[in-house]
Design a protein that fits this description.
12-stranded mixed sheet; 34% helix; 14 strands; single chain
């Protein structure tokens, strides 16, 4: 595998990482002129879902107090428009202020479409912004199978009254489970977040690390609030929770009404924090919420099944005991996804479109890799989660269990 790019033009040099997707090997690659710090770093980086080699030295951002990572993944229509990532990247680069003592780094997280990835790279190079590329490896993906966990229901269940009585969203979760391993690899949501966390701790001297989603925008006002709170923070507080405001138009950043509803937050980590994202949780399945619940930030009432990856029990059970564990601070803006406001404002519709986007995206890659696929063409329904019939859902599970694809 060739070198993953880390174009560090803001610090006057270009570095390269070598990134190998999972399964990782039990060995460490060390450059000929590696320092002791580098060797120790590799031992920690070994635990990633990808292996990283920095050549030839650690990246020290001199004077940097905060390192802000934005993790760019694949667009997933119909949850997002097909060009939201590129449009929002340009908007951030053209309109977000430069913050004092803040290094901004973008992570290109397994972008499948090489033309799209190259456009993103060209834009980042044009604006002389540093980025890290975690590549999508088609050969690696080819070996990832469907996932039928041991306690998954039998084929008979999908023809039963109990199954018919489930909501459309609950039914879709069975299909989402089948794509668990494929989702973990390509979406790599928590894998990339943990990569950013560890890179910030091991490869920079920043005090605070922000592993944010790609479409997050920080105004000068919100950053000033964050900066004041971080400077005055209690030594016992290692995590800061930044609520999110969802925008219907990117121009709202210039005249924002702060009374807007606050949604799923981003998280700021101190350099010496020990808690990370759970990398067995896939995108669309509480990948970030699991950590928020673990920290005691929120109580999520998620009904999950015995065959799903287990979540961690909350660290604390009472409000008083979370006093110093985390603190809420300011807000971050989630730029427009490119879909209609009616879809964007409905939590249920967003969930349905997210599942549809994930599953169609993965199925299309299977079609490219093997020339055949598993999922039927979705149909339009008044219920946005009911785009396959119960019989189609039962057939999907049956064929996936046998490891056989539907011919195109």
């Amino acid at each position: 595998m060739g070198p993953a790019q880390f174009a560090d033009r803001s610090f006057g040099r270009q570095l390269h990482f070598y990134v190998q997707p999972f399964p990782y090997q039990n060995r460490v690659d060390i450059g000929a002129d590696a320092t002791l710090s580098h060797i120790l770093a590799q031992l920690v980086l070994q635990s990633y879902t990808m292996r990283v080699l920095l050549v030839p030295q650690l990246l020290y951002c001199v004077g940097t107090w905060i390192v802000l990572y934005r993790i760019i993944g694949n667009d997933l229509p119909p949850r997002h428009s097909s060009n939201q990532t590129l449009e929002n990247l340009l908007f951030i680069l053209q309109n977000e202020p430069s913050f004092e003592r803040v290094a901004k780094i973008w992570i290109l997280n397994r972008i499948v479409n090489k033309q799209v990835e190259q456009k993103l790279i060209d834009v980042l190079n044009t604006y002389k912004r540093p980025f890290i590329r975690i590549p999508f490896d088609l050969k690696e993906y080819r070996h990832i199978s469907y996932y039928i966990p041991p306690q998954f229901p039998s084929d008979q269940f999908f023809h039963s009254k109990d199954f018919r009585q489930l909501s459309s969203l609950e039914k879709l979760r069975f299909i989402d489970t089948i794509y668990h391993k494929k989702n973990l690899y390509i979406m790599n949501a928590n894998g990339a977040r943990n990569f950013a966390l560890r890179h910030g701790k091991l490869q920079t001297k920043a005090q605070w690390i922000m592993p944010f989603d790609s479409n997050c925008f920080l105004s000068q006002y919100s950053f000033n609030e964050i900066q004041i709170v971080l400077h005055a923070s209690n030594p016992r507080t290692q995590y800061f929770i930044v609520p999110m405001i969802r925008l219907m138009n990117n121009e709202e950043v210039f005249h924002l009404n702060k009374s807007r509803k606050l949604e799923e937050p981003q998280i700021i980590f101190r350099y010496d924090s020990s808690i990370e994202f759970l990398d067995t949780i896939r995108y669309g399945r509480r990948s970030k919420e699991e950590l928020l619940s673990y920290l005691g930030v929120r109580k999520f009432y998620w009904k999950y099944s015995s065959w799903e990856p287990q979540e961690r029990k909350p660290l604390v059970t009472s409000k008083n005991s979370t006093e110093y564990l985390f603190q809420n601070v300011s807000f971050v803006l989630r730029l427009y996804s490119g879909v209609s406001p009616s879809q964007e404002q409905s939590v249920y519709t967003r969930a349905c479109r997210r599942y549809q986007g994930i599953l169609q995206f993965l199925d299309n890659i299977d079609l490219q890799v093997r020339g055949n696929h598993l999922l039927p063409v979705p149909v339009t329904d008044s219920d946005p989660c009911a785009f396959w019939s119960d019989q189609q859902l039962a057939n999907i599970v049956k064929i996936a269990r046998k490891g056989v694809y539907i011919e195109s």
